[in-house]
């Protein structure tokens, strides 16, 4: 069977391309659809269907642009109620793609419309299942997202539906089926996903905690809900965009790809309420940046941290990036619904400097310098990693303020006492540093390389590491 996984690491997202006899289907596409169109052209195939497993929360799907550009029909599972034209399939309904068949299996639980698609080859042999967020490798979809859109859908109710879907719809299927999930490790749509992005269903029945045959519904619900952290704030907003519709990516690109001189950029910043977003590497940002801009680097989990740190997806944004990265930046912002880019600094930060504009820097120290400081004065240390990371191991005396909670805990950072900031490797701590500087803090230092660098054997820091046993 000709099925391809198209994986995007930034979002830990998998879309799928299916082709047979000149007809193609796309499953759960990202916002930018041209790569899918190009893939079909390579096969001289026409995209017939766009299958959606559910209304996604962590990204804006490209289904509407694909329909507009190719004429493909959008397919949702039972109970879906989009605000645009789409085929709402019935449970067990079959769609033909060339010589292949795609069978609809309604699997509510992650959301009520969640649907798994069973792939059947030209010999009527069942090949695999595209599971969306119903079943991951090593995990299942979290059942607490839909309640942020429909309040009566409690996480307990959805978890119960998911238990029934897995037991009655998924587990009876053949062990040799290949599981094709929508996400891998790093996605916030589950809590313990594997780095693997496909597996056999039989192996998952043996290894996935949620598929244990001897588990009661009550045990399943308790285990599934234990340890869930709050979902990113942008999730409900993305769900609504996927339900109601959105602007074409072409329109968004046209609005955002406006080169602005340093003077025009400064004027736009002063005349609008736009947020200045600098997407350069942390080390480059630290050496010099436009005052009041915040740093979220393209080379990390960019889209996810944008979603975590910028509460309103309708926020106007001015971007500062490495020259030539403007289109990529606007595209990746749009993947999570941030469609209001209104221009970029032409020539990047260098043009700002050449125009003689004022700029700011971030103080940084190496781990070796931190060690000497620690020995002499025991500095105040803020660790902005996740609580689970902190609980596993941290510097003695450090205070944990996870990055995604920093705006709610700004009062913990003193303005009358110096402190050191660190994360695991330096990406998140620079985001935090830029936010603190924007809010008026100037008495801190960022630790280069973060906790991971501190643990390396070449720097004797182990005596300052405090293991913490997780209960």
UniProtKB/TrEMBL annotation:
Q: Which parts of the sequence belong to the Rhodanese domain?
A: 270-361, 375-463
A single GO BP annotation from the record? glutathione metabolic process
Keywords of this entry? Hydrolase, Metal-binding, Transferase
**Which SMART domains does the record match to this protein?**
Lactamase_B, RHOD
Spans traversing the lipid bilayer: none
Question: Which terms in the Gene Ontology molecular function aspect does this entry carry?
Answer: hydrolase activity; metal ion binding; sulfur dioxygenase activity; transferase activity
List each coiled-coil range: none
Q: What is the name listed in the Swiss-Prot or TrEMBL entry for this protein?
A: Glyoxylase-like metal-dependent hydrolase (Beta-lactamase superfamily II)/rhodanese-related sulfurtransferase
Instruction: State the species of origin.
Output: Saonia flava
List the lineage, top down.
Bacteria, Pseudomonadati, Bacteroidota, Flavobacteriia, Flavobacteriales
């Amino acid at each position: 069977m000709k099925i391809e996984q198209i994986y995007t690491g930034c979002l830990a997202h998998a879309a799928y391309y299916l082709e047979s006899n000149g007809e193609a289907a796309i499953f759960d596409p990202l916002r930018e659809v041209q790569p899918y169109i190009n893939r079909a052209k390579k096969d001289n195939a026409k995209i017939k269907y766009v299958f959606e497993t559910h209304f996604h929360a962590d990204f804006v799907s490209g289904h509407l642009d694909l329909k507009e550009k190719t004429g493909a029909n959008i397919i949702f599972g039972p109970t879906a109620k989009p605000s645009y034209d789409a085929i709402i399939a019935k449970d067990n309904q079959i769609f033909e793609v060339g010589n292949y068949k795609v069978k609809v299996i309604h699997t509510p639980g992650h959301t009520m419309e969640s649907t798994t698609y069973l792939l059947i080859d030209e010999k009527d042999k069942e090949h695999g299942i595209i599971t969306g967020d119903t079943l991951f490798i090593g995990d299942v979809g979290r059942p607490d997202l839909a309640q942020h859109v429909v309040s009566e859908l409690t996480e307990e109710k959805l978890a119960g539906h998911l238990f029934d879907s897995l037991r009655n719809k998924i587990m009876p299927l053949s062990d040799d089926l290949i599981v094709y999930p929508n996400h891998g490790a790093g996605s916030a749509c589950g809590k313990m996903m594997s780095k693997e992005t496909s597996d056999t269903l039989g192996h998952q029945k043996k290894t996935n905690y949620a598929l244990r045959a001897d588990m009661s519904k009550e045990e399943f619900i308790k285990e599934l809900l234990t340890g869930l952290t709050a979902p990113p704030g942008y999730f409900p907003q993305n769900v609504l965009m996927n339900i109601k519709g959105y602007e074409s990516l072409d329109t968004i690109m046209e609005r955002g790809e406006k080169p602005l001189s340093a003077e025009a950029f400064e004027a736009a910043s002063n005349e609008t309420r736009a947020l200045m977003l600098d997407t350069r590497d942390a080390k480059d940002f630290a050496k010099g940046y436009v005052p009041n801009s915040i740093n979220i680097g393209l080379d990390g989990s960019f889209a996810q941290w944008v979603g975590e740190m910028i509460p309103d997806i309708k926020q106007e944004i001015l971007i500062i990036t490495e020259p030539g990265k403007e289109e990529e930046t606007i595209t990746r912002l749009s993947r999570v619904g941030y469609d209001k880019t209104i221009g970029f600094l032409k020539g990047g930060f260098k043009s700002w400097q050449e125009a003689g504009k004022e700029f700011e820097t971030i103080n940084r120290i190496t781990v070796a310098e931190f060690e000497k400081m620690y020995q002499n004065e025991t500095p105040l240390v803020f660790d902005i990693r996740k609580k689970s990371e902190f609980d596993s191991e941290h510097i003695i005396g450090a205070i944990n303020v996870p990055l995604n909670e920093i705006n709610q805990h700004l009062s913990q950072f003193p303005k009358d006492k110096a402190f050191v900031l660190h994360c695991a490797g330096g990406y998140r701590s620079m985001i935090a540093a830029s936010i603190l500087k924007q809010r008026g803090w100037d008495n801190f230092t960022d630790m280069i390389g973060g906790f991971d660098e501190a643990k390396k054997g070449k720097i004797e820091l182990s005596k300052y590491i405090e293991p913490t046993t997780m209960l």
